[in-house]
């Protein structure tokens, strides 16, 4: 009999912990129920801890069982990540870069990065996931993403952050709004309009920045609708349900009955930043970051 805990013990334990039913767990593992029971008993003896409370009606985790369930899940997650990293070890020209992004990053930064990576490192695979700012932060901390493109003013200490694109903001009005774009004299005249904004939960920094733009003009905007998608915001503006303020780069790629006024007179800027984990061991990350940061230095807009 083994005198130490093995991965198979943890596999059997997690199956029972998730099912809370020995027969169902045994079927899931393709072993007999008595065999599974023996493995769990052996594990409890080795650990000198009771993991399950069992009677004829139900199976429950003990406090020790709850603790081990979380630790075992972490162990398998780390093993999976280690296996992935081992497959990527080399000179950083083969492997995968997992990218998180906000929709606005797709207008210029990400397409340029993907083309540059494909040209210089054709063996590197890239994958994309559109996520909110905070979802990207969590995913990078948990090693589910390698880099993310966010609009945040700060990130946890375990992450690096660098601005890769600086943009102005633009006012979005219905095409039939009773004002010509050349007649714009400042934000104050829009104090009575309804505003459509990106959700505060989706992008707190953006939301606070828009509040600052309006506050500088002497009013607090009346927010009638919120969304996480630029297309939805533009559609609401098109249907005269309010006006919006968005990063100027979002003008590209949308054909709708709206008009844009670039707010060159406001001090606030729409900053897009890249974030990555300081302890990320993915060997392709450095090569891809060097490409990104070199190219982005030529992309930042110097708006006066």
Automatic annotation (TrEMBL):
Residue span(s) of domain HTH lysR-type: 5-62
Species lineage: Bacteria, Pseudomonadati, Bacteroidota, Flavobacteriia, Flavobacteriales
Superkingdom of source: Bacteria
Keywords: DNA-binding, Transcription, Transcription regulation
Family from the record: Belongs to the LysR transcriptional regulatory family.
Protein name, per record: LysR family transcriptional regulator
Any Pfam family the entry gives: LysR_substrate
PROSITE patterns from the UniProt entry: HTH_LYSR
Gene3D superfamilies recorded: Periplasmic binding protein-like II, Winged helix-like DNA-binding domain superfamily/Winged helix DNA-binding domain
InterPro entries tied to this protein: LysR_HTH_N (IPR000847), LysR_subst-bd (IPR005119), WH-like_DNA-bd_sf (IPR036388), WH_DNA-bd_sf (IPR036390)
């Amino acid at each position: 009999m083994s005198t130490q805990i093995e991965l198979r013990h943890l596999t059997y334990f997690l199956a029972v912990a998730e099912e809370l039913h020995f027969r169902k767990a045994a079927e899931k593992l393709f072993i007999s129920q008595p065999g599974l029971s023996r493995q769990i008993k052996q594990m409890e003896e080795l650990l000198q801890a009771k993991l399950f409370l069992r009677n004829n009606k139900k199976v429950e985790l003990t406090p020790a069982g709850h603790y081990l369930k979380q630790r075992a899940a972490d162990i398998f997650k780390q093993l999976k990540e280690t296996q992935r990293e081992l497959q990527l070890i080399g000179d950083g020209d083969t492997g995968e870069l997992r990218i998180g992004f906000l929709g606005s990053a797709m207008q210029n930064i990400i397409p340029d990065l993907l083309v540059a990576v494909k040209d210089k490192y054709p063996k590197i695979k890239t994958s994309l996931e559109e996520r909110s700012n905070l979802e990207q932060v969590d995913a990078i901390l948990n090693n589910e993403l390698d880099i993310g493109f966010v609009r945040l003013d700060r990130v946890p200490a375990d992450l690096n952050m660098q601005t890769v694109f600086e943009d102005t903001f633009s006012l979005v009005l219905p095409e039939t709004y009773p004002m010509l774009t050349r007649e714009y004299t400042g934000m104050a005249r829009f104090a009575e309009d309804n505003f459509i904004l990106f959700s505060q939960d989706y992008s707190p920094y953006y939301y606070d920045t828009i509040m600052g733009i309006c506050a500088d003009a002497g009013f607090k905007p009346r927010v009638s609708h919120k969304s996480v998608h630029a297309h939805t915001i533009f559609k609401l503006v098109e249907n005269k349900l309010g006006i919006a303020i968005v990063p100027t780069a979002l003008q590209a790629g949308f054909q709708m009955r709206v008009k844009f006024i670039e707010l060159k007179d406001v001090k606030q800027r729409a900053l897009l930043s890249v974030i990555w984990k300081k302890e990320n061991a993915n060997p392709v990350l450095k090569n891809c970051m060097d490409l990104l940061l070199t190219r982005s230095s030529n992309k930042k807009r110097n708006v006066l």
